[in-house]
Amino acid sequence: MAPKSFLLTEQLATYLLDHSAPLDPIERSLIATTAELGGVAGMQIAPEQGRFMGLLASLLGARTALEIGTFTGYSALQLVRGMGPGSTLTCLDVSEEWTSIGRAHWERAGISDQIELLLGPALSSLETLPADQRFDLIFIDADKPNYLAYYEAVVPRLNQGGVLLVDNVLWHGQITDPSDTSEHTVAIRHFNDHVAADPRTESTILPIGDGLTMVRLARS
């Protein structure tokens, strides 16, 4: 598959994957099934990003996670596998069609009982969660104009020592192009500026995939 990261050449992407843990049959099937959807398949995170997120979940000792934007379920698969047996993941998405692909593969992987999928607008779904529900790991990869709203909704739900990940924050490199004033680019710029200036949190942007922001609550 073509490299997801615009910062990688095809040769470097191949080398990177060749020197990482190999994809298993379920992962390969999920990637291939997603590719059959056509251009929209580009919304799936890169394999190396999935590996990173799964390893991070394991290193954090995360037991509870929240995902806003599930698509076909590849990131969910990686998060639950990283957290291990007995962990739980709450997924928020609007598409029955796309998430059904994920459901089938979660079932094959034996992790479907660890995942709660809530279909509907994410902000509305978040309001249905118990007010005191907190998470060790949160991943945002959904509609870009609502990134800031999602961030503000989930920061209070992040456990101390937990991590919030946000995808696509470099936006194919367009984020630094002043001539690009499209809705999505402007929304991501505004989001990035807000996070960088937020006194409640500490953050960094990692050049993984299309740019991945890592956030944790600031230490008092």
CATH superfamily: Vaccinia Virus protein VP39
Q: Rg to the nearest angstrom?
A: 17 Å
Query: What strand line-up does the widest sheet have?
Result: 3-2-1-4-5-7-6
Order of SSEs, N→C? HHHEHEHEHEHEHEE
> Gap between N and C termini, in Å?
44 Å
Taken from the alpha-carbon principal axes, the silhouette is: globular
Helix content: 25-40%
CATH architecture: 3-Layer(aba) Sandwich
What does this structure look like?
40% of the residues lie in helices and 20% in strands. It has 220 residues and is an alpha/beta fold. The protein has a single domain (10-217), classed as 3-Layer(aba) Sandwich (Rossmann fold), CATH 3.40.50.150. A seven-stranded mixed beta sheet has the order 3-2-1-4-5-7-6, sandwiched between helices. α7 links the parallel β4 and β5. α2 runs antiparallel to α5 (96-109) and α3 (47-60) runs parallel beside α4 (74-83). The longest helix is centred in the first third of the chain and has 14 residues, at 47-60. The chain is globular. The chain starts with 9 loop residues before the first helix and ends with a strand.
